[in-house]
Amino acid sequence: MSHINDAKYLIIATIILAVLSMLSLLWGQFDISISTFFDYLNHKLFSSPATQDFTLIESIILDIRLPRVLLAILIGAALATSGAVFQAMFVNPLVSPGILGVLAGASFGAACGMLISEHWFIVQILAFVFGFVAVGFAVFIGSMVTNSRSTVMLVLGGVISASLFTSLLSIIKYVADPYSTLPAIVYWLMGSLSMAELNETLLVAIPITLSILGMVFMSKYFDLMSLGDEEAKALGVNVKLIRIVAIILATLASSLSVVMAGIIGWVGLIIPHIIRMAVGPSHRLLIPLSAVIGAIFLLSADAISRLALSVEIPIGILTSLIGIPIFIIVLRNARAAWN
Amino acid sequence: MELNPIIEVNDLHFSYKNHKVLSGINFELNRGEVVSLLGINGCGKSTLIKLILKLIHTDADIKIDAKELKSYSHKDLAHKIAYIPQYNNTPFNYQVLDMVLMARVTKLGFFAQPSKKDYEVAMAALEKIGMEHLKNRAFGQLSGGQKQMVLLARSIAQEVNTFIMDEPVAGLDYGNQIRLLELIDSLASEGYTFLKTTHYPDHALLMSSRVVVMHEGVIVADDAPDAVITKEMIEKIYDIKADIITHGEHKRCLPIFETNRQKDLHELTI
Q1: Touching check for B110 and chain A: CB below 8 Å?
Q2: Which of A123, A191, A267, B217 has the least C-beta neighbours within 10 A?
Q3: Over the range A243-266, which residues count as b (16 or more CB within 10 Å of their CB) and which as e?
């Protein structure tokens, strides 16, 4: 039965994610051995006697690596899931949070927030609002040019929307204080997980996790939605409700990822394609698997950026470098959508 | 026992952007009927179907199973009528079994995933039309005829008795057209009700209990097949020459082929 297979794929992917997460906690410029790690866990969880002084290890794990690992998991999951959901909602395998302009809109909103307020919450709200405005604008442009649903026109609408908000962001950079706000905005936008702090990460984890769970629960409707509105309605789906809720959740998750780590492109576009190539397009499996594989992808990319290279490069740059060749391969499979 | 008609349309008028599409439509679909809706492109038959399925908004007096259409949600309507569209184009190439399983989704609660029973219903539907061996194939790789069969299976899995089909044989090769019609006929004999649009008067004659002809947004005939599909009617609606002949136990409709080349040849032989 296919639902047993579905569970099998998810369990295997989750185990891989768990192992990778643990290795990411241990490996780095200061390696921690597995036995030391378990001694530490024993000491913390079961109050067994300390075998050594754990102060340094605790500080490395809890203050430096854990927030970063959690953030990589959250953002990878958020971007990949949102990408899969946008692709289903617009019946268009070539869209993603990046291509629809959500990331550009959210970065403009977040930068506005940083400019006018110190308050973290305002930054998040503005990121979401402008992320939503950006996707709305992309759809508006796409539908203004042509009446029928067109794959290419929506992509072009997204390109226009993304450029608009990138330009608006440049205005903000131009007026920002060149000694404090400007460098902060520029470094944040390149996409980095290195500024992660545990409290902030846990705070943003709640809305991101809830949006991802919402999208997973809605996944069974996405197969029907991807057949087009008429067929979905005839099969009994409340098309408007599902579409607006799904787009809000996908926009929220991807906008919050921008607030936390800047623009990390390509994850939302390529991960759903890779999963479709491996296990097929059914959204019941695609959506939850996107969350897990997206997390694995970003965690691995972050590990490469930390371990393999002597200089740490921003993860947004790295995901582009990895994503572009993968997408070129994937495009061959997606070309049917251009017709 | 007197049964209400499953679909009842009373004095329906519909315009699209000041362009009158349907006027004064009165139409009933009774349980157990196979009704063919005939007419040239643009006569309004697709619009009528979409209005009945609530795919286009209307306040008109349409009743489904004796209840106002307005009072139905799409979900409620999907528990009464299944729709089989003309063709299916999605960039996502689902497996056949997943395609059939889609009929079950709106029967589930918000947090529920398809259960073992839903898989069994989907498999039973595929078996009923003899397609179970294709369950793991990609829908997009099937032939046009197989796609229509899978969509029929999906409608069976929807567990409703009334199917609306939009030009079911369009784009199918000759053999598959006939096989699909035979399948519809055998489902009808099991008690399923069909409303289907068609471009083939001959198919309407072969396998309908009633034929409705639409022309320029008006129903011009609604009766038994032999009463409706006459030489005069076909010649008037399609602007061609035609003949109705008797073949075996069936009346058949044949177009008369007249080209200039034939005329020229005819003149030459004289």
Answers
A1: yes
A2: A123
A3: bebbbebbbbbbbbbbbbbbbbbb
